[in-house]
Amino acid sequence: MRKLQPPAESFLIRTMTPEDMPEVMEIERIAFTNPWSPELLRRELTHDWSTILLAEEELAPGVRRLLGFAIFWVVHDELHILNVAVDPRHRRRGVARAVMHATLARGREPKCTMATLEVRRSNEAALALYRGLDFRAVGVRPNYYVDEGEDAIVMILDL
Ligand SMILES: CC(C)(COP(=O)(O)OP(=O)(O)OC[C@H]1O[C@@H](n2cnc3c(N)ncnc32)[C@H](O)[C@@H]1OP(=O)(O)O)[C@@H](O)C(=O)NCCC(=O)NCCS
């Protein structure tokens, strides 16, 4: 008999508020070598075109744990993903895939026709994540990441 795949975990997705800053910053700091500053993150919360979606799980009634987040902009008909990060203790559970699905759904709502992002050439985990969501590489921005002079791969997805 064919072995059935275990069902994918479901996570709670909601929009970030200023009260979530400490937990989001904690993940941002461990996930990236050059993390965004709290000021930059706080500024995103004030822009109409910017959204930060959180993925959480419920540990007990009313008790939630933050697992990861995605930051995106909707500008005209384009959904631009700026940042996706997951707590290292909770990786490979489908958290990034879930928050990306929710992000893409948000983009389809106001009729975006395309999703775009940049990713470091060496970031195999993120490249695999995006390819799995059907993003395709369409170009390279040489030395895009000034810290190490690393190239960015530009990826797009038709929505
Ligand atoms: C990239 C990142 C967001 C993935 O988060 P995650 O929750 O572990 O990813 P998921 O569990 O949803 O994985 C979805 C798919 O992505 C791919 N993937 C994720 N991590 C991977 C890894 N370490 N190696 C190879 N493929 C990986 C796989 O195809 C995976 O599907 P599978 O588990 O069924 O094989 C996470 O590793 C992270 O926060 N990295 C640091 C921050 C970062 O680089 N963000 C991206 C900036 S562009």
Overview of this protein structure:
By secondary structure, the protein is α+β, with helices and mostly antiparallel strands. The longest helix is centred in the middle third of the chain and has 14 residues, at 95-108. The N and C termini lie far apart (37 Å). A 7-stranded mixed β-sheet has the order 1-2-3-4-5-7-6. 26% of the residues lie in helices and 40% in strands. Bound molecules: coenzyme A. Coenzyme A (COA) binds next to strand 4, helix 3 and helix 4.
What does the radius of gyration come to? Answer: 16 Å
Number of strands: 7
Strand content: 35-45%
Q: Could you say which overall geometry the principal axes of the C-alpha atoms support?
A: globular
User: Which blocks of ≥5 consecutive residues have pLDDT under 50?
Assistant: none
N/C terminus separation: 37 Å
Count of individual helical segments: 4
- Helicity level: 25-40%
Question: How much is the average pLDDT?
Answer: 94
User: What topology, given as strand order, has the largest sheet?
Assistant: 1-2-3-4-5-7-6
Bound molecules: coenzyme A
Helix-strand category: alpha+beta
Largest sheet: 7 strands, mixed
* Topology as a string of helices (H) and strands (E): EHHEEEHEHEE
